[in-house]
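Propose amino acids for all 501 sites.
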């Protein structure tokens, strides 16, 4: 009879500790009290390399793990490109989710493990296991300090450090570089600025040590995920009930399309006798139709997952495809209504994001259609849609969509003669749009140009949005915004410098 190996029987504690200390120290240096910039990409890359090295040492560095880690690095690099603080917040959440997924995948890299439930639970599972593994590491380390060799090392360090400090202080009087280092150390100690940074380092150490320790676990064998389609025991929705439900919803949707066929893709506010404004038409249309489309997709997935056939397989497939077509038509109508709204009132970030969501939903509809035509695998469907959503998010992060929005609104104002929303162009958009706005000033009327320059000076002259940066805080679009503002005589005031500057 063979006994299972303990979870950490063959791990490499030196590699785990070294990687965790290096990553935590790097984070304390370039992440603490720093603007988002190059530092996010650098630190995330370091954390991913550490996790990959530990997983490789254990023989679990498969393609799924590498793909998730690469996604985390690409997303984190976006913090060095975009200057939109809201987008930076979403990047932070996406990177945290990617690292949590990578940590959980590290002990068994298998694409089939990535399901909706797996992704939802990953942050909580990763956090709990990281804390537990970190605690275990510290307990194990405390036991090692009881050995004679460890006590000798501690005594050696206690004797050496005071002597090194004395020699360093003496050398500081003979060399200007050493003198600068001495003054910096004295200033940091005297102002107690090292305390918050030290706490930040300890927090990062606990997180990274726990994550790397979890990745150093005994690899678990790749287990084939159960085919959800084959599970009959949990299919509680009967075939007849399912047929009635899907048929009724399909009939309702096609009745809605037939009744409104004359203006579903048209311009409702121009219909004689209509009292509906553009705003009401577009906003209500988008809100209702998009919610209906989203709920319909979820309903179809749930009925495919938990519904039985009971001899109605052909009928259910035909009706489900008809339902998917109706949902696609309504989704296209919602997209068209947002386009009408943009043509009437201009482009905004929220409207663009709404269209991006509808595109992802359309891809989900297409993927679900292929699944319904064959055999629905909910895990595979989720992976496809999740990958598409991640790709769209990466495009939104790196594409300067705010500059495009400003450009389109300025063009619209020039060609139609409608008044430009100066407040939105200058304060509703992030510094990402500043270079484009400055470059288009010459094409605007004198009044609009003066208002834009005044608004830009009011927002950015204080330096709060575009403060002076250290090398690891460098951000491509913040730098471009500073240069564009300087070209029209607006120089942001120096920002607060970090203690390490």
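Proposal:
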């Amino acid at each position: 009879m063979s006994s299972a190996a303990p979870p950490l029987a063959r791990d490499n504690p030196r590699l785990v500790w070294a990687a965790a200390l290096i990553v935590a120290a790097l984070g304390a240096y370039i992440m603490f009290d720093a603007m988002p910039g190059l530092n996010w990409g650098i630190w995330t890359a370091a954390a991913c390399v550490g996790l990959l090295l530990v997983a490789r040492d254990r023989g679990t560095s498969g393609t799924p793990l590498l793909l998730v880690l690469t996604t985390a690095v690409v997303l984190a690099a976006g913090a060095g490109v975009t200057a939109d603080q809201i987008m930076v917040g979403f990047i932070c959440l996406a990177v945290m989710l990617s690292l949590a997924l990578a940590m959980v995948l590290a002990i068994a890299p298998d694409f089939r493990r990535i399901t909706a439930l797996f992704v939802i639970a990953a942050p909580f599972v990763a956090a709990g296991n990281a804390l537990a593994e970190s605690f275990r590491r510290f307990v194990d380390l405390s036991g090692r300090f009881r050995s004679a060799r460890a006590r000798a090392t501690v005594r050696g360090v206690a004797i050496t450090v005071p002597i090194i400090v004395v020699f360093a202080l003496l050398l500081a009087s003979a060399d200007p570089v050493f003198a600068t280092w001495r003054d910096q150390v004295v200033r940091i100690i005297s102002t107690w600025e090292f305390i918050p940074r030290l706490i930040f380092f300890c927090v990062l150490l606990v997180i990274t040590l726990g994550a790397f320790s979890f990745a150093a676990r005994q690899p678990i064998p790749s287990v084939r995920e159960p085919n959800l389609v084959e599970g009959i025991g949990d299919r509680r929705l009967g075939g007849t009930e399912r047929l009635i439900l899907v048929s009724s919803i399909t009939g309702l949707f096609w009745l809605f399309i037939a009744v409104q066929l004359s203006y579903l893709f048209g311009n409702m506010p121009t219909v004689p006798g209509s009292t509906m404004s553009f705003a009401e038409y577009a906003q209500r249309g988008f809100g209702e139709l998009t919610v209906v489309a989203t709920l319909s997709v979820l309903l179809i997935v749930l009925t495919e997952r938990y519904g039985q056939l009971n001899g109605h397989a052909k009928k259910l497939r035909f009706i489900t495809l008809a339902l998917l077509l109706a949902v696609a038509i309504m989704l296209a109508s919602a997209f068209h209504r947002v386009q009408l709204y943009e043509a009437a009132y201009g482009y905004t970030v929220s409207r663009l994001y709404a269209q991006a969501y509808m595109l992802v939903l359309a891809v989900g509809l297409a993927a679900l259609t292929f699944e319904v035509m064959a055999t629905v695998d909910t895990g595979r469907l989720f992976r496809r849609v999740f990958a598409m959503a991640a790709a769209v998010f990466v495009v939104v992060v790196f594409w300067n969509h705010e500059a495009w929005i400003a450009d389109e609104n300025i063009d619209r104002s020039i060609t139609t003669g409608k008044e430009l929303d100066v407040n939105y162009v200058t304060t509703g958009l992030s510094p990402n749009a500043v270079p484009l706005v400055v470059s288009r000033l010459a094409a605007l009327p004198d009044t609009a140009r003066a208002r834009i320059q005044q608004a830009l000076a009011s927002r950015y002259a204080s330096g709060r949005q575009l403060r002076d940066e250290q090398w690891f805080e460098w951000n491509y679009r913040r730098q471009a915004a500073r240069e564009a503002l300087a070209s029209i005589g607006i120089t942001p005031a120096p920002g607060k410098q970090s203690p390490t500057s």
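Residues 313-345 form the longest helix (33 residues). Residues 401-487 form one domain.
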